[in-house]
Write a structure and sequence with these properties.
The chain is α/β, with parallel strands linked by helices. The protein is built from nine helices and eight strands. The chain has an eight-stranded mixed β-sheet, with helices on both faces.
Length: 285
């Protein structure tokens, strides 16, 4: 396995004003010599934490689970409060640029790089999916716009809306003094879907008391209105922050959620592989 920690400031001077390094950790399989050369799909994982911290259980455990499914994984430890927007979107843009320009090094198909986020990380990837094409990111990072294109977006119980169904603390931590109804609309996924928004895999639970399920429903409705392909999984039970939905990522002693929710990992991996033209049941790619 290729396990490295990359500091994005070493590659992108535009991030040098941030108060500390931005680590991007790689979890990538080596190409086995006895197999024909392969290019794998990749995913950049953004843990949650309300933009007030980083939830580690939504980073490495997720990466290892998806690595086992044939996805090359990268975990982005983006900045949180008191660092404000747009730093986080710029960091994610830098991560996408790094992964795409180093596709050969990590045996990645550069046309199949997704971004995945949990809770506030879901907001980050949702905002990126709807704003990646704006010129300031390519200009800041010194690359062309297409280098920054995400090929898929995976919000997991994400704070996708800045409207009445938002998680207020997440938006306040991200925006600080910039907080306003206009900025919240600007950073609401459902308000900003366009033809440039990539296909999505979305999952949420009805019982989520922290981030209402309407965040997922509004996002899916907006994608549908713009004819963007999506897969939506809504589970009736399960609290916020389930991660892998197993004992490895459980963080409290409450009643365990239904095991059926854990199927999101296989379902999402299948979705990513299908996007990349890979059928793991027939071994065709």
């Amino acid at each position: 396995m290729i396990a490295e920690q990359i500091f994005l400031q070493d590659i992108f001077p535009a991030l040098s004003s941030l108060p500390s390094p931005t680590p991007l950790t790689t979890y990538c399989r080596d190409t086995l010599t006895e197999l024909r050369p392969r290019r794998f799909p990749a995913v950049i994982i953004c843990p949650g934490g309300g933009y007030g911290g980083i939830a580690g259980r939504e980073g490495e455990p997720i990466a290892l689970a998806f690595l086992a499914q044939g996805i090359q994984c990268f975990v982005l430890r983006y900045h949180t409060a008191p660092v404000r927007y747009p730093a986080q979107l710029t960091e994610l843009a830098a991560a996408v640029a790094f992964v795409r320009t180093n596709a050969e090094r990590y045996s990645i198909d550069p046309e199949h790089i997704s971004v995945m986020g949990f809770s506030a990380g879901g907001h980050l990837v949702g905002s990126y999916a709807t704003h990646w094409h704006e010129p300031q990111y390519a200009e800041m990072l010194g690359c062309d716009r297409e280098t920054l294109r995400p090929n898929g977006v995976v919000p997991c119980y994400g704070v996708l809306s800045g409207g009445e169904h938002t998680h207020d603390g997440t938006m306040k931590n991200l925006l600080g003094e910039q907080d306003s109804p206009e900025m919240r609309r600007y950073l609401s996924f459902e308000e900003n879907v366009t033809a440039d928004t990539p296909p999505a895999f979305i999952w949420h639970t009805v019982a989520d008391q922290a981030v209402p399920v309407e965040n997922a429903l509004l996002a899916a409705s907006a994608l549908n209105a713009h004819k963007i392909p999506f897969e939506l999984h809504i589970y009736p039970e399960g609290r916020h922050g389930l991660a892998l939905v197993n004992w490895l990522t459980a963080f409290d002693q409450g009643d365990p959620p239904p095991r059926t929710i854990a199927s999101w990992v296989n379902d999402c991996a299948d979705w990513m592989l299908r996007l990349a033209g890979i059928d793991r049941d027939t071994y065709r790619s």
